[in-house]
Amino acid sequence: MTELTKTLELKLVDPNAHKRRKLRETREAYQHALQDAFDARCTTQTEANDVVVNYDLSGYAKNALKKYVPQLTTTYNADELHDNHPVRFTNEGLRLDHKPENAIEWYVKIPHHEDYHLWIPAQPNPEQRGWLEALNAGDATMGESRLFERDGTWYLHVTATRNVEERSEASADERTAIGVDIGEASLVTVCHRDDHGSPTAPKLWADEGKTVRQLRKTYFTATRRLQTRGSEHIPESFGEDVWNQIDDLFHRVTREVVEYAESVENPVLVLEDLTYMRESMDYGEYMNRRLHGWGFAKLHAQIRYKAVEKGIPVETVNPRNTSRECHACGEVGYRPKQATFTCTNDACWMGEYQADVNGAINIADRYLSGESHSREDTDGDDSAEDGGRLTAPQDTQADAETQQETLGTYAS
């Protein structure tokens, strides 16, 4: 069994004027409590509690704040808060009710304050119906939920965790390791070795990488032009449209990656461990911002949950030098061009090789050599799954996390 966590999105359907007013009151009280606790630089839950206890919020929102503010001040070292932080509730805060006989089948109970709750009909992502049914039946557990408004419509993001059976009982030695290399030239590259140990059936999503680069360039160019004209923010609708186009492309590519794995006997998808990259490597300011803003975490999260839903295991490996080592001899080489790897070992038969395919094979080989890791992160605050919403590059992780919860039509 594999434990899988996923963020479910529910669109609140036409709350009346009274309920809209109560939702706004909850949001405003939460924002004030968050700002005051942040301004007080609360570093512990006890300190945060002393601030938020006086606000007219449910205990579920207060408890979520007590956990969140110390993360902002100590883990993310945020200098300031930005707008549109979603209202967070701990896992006990929400209730689901299913009325299959009704035109709108799902209803959610949202806490307003201590003894006052709002029942509101909700429309889920149709692809996530099975997850909601599992929550309703007790076959999945609910985690933290987040409430926010976008373009006049209210949404809930609900974290759910369930156990999924693996498709095959094959041992690690019997599995076919498929290396997954995520980059900016080729968005994703996959490859595995055949029964004779030779790299076989590589697949590259190079055109998709080009499309994403063009969309990102469009966004940044427009942002810079607006800034030179004295405008601080790009219109939200423009930014959302750009990132939603990338989001849709990511979903298609990650689905095709899993389909590739399904075509292989006893597959295991092998990814680079993003936690190791964040915790143990200093890439400098440019690369750190790139890791936060570029879609590495989102692609990881989508591949992971789509694979696990199909019963395909996913492992992670140490990413050090996977793009710089020769998969044939292990010598550290170089890339004279983005798509070309050159081995510096004169005795090696390979010479030059497609760089992304070389990286994918190295990633697969790390698993075959027993270097795999079963975790993405240990504290649940900065894992690939938590980075599942696509964001524009941000100056701080706290800023990125905020937008991760407010962009896109459906949660990952």
Automatic annotation (TrEMBL):
Keywords, A to Z, come to: DNA-binding, Plasmid
Q: Where is the composition biased (Polar residues)?
A: 393-412
Spell out the molecular function terms from Gene Ontology: DNA binding
Matching entries from Pfam families are given as: Cas12f1-like_TNB
Q: What range(s) does the Cas12f1-like TNB domain occupy?
A: 296-363
**Which parts of this chain are annotated as the region Disordered?**
370-412
- What's the name of the protein? Transposase
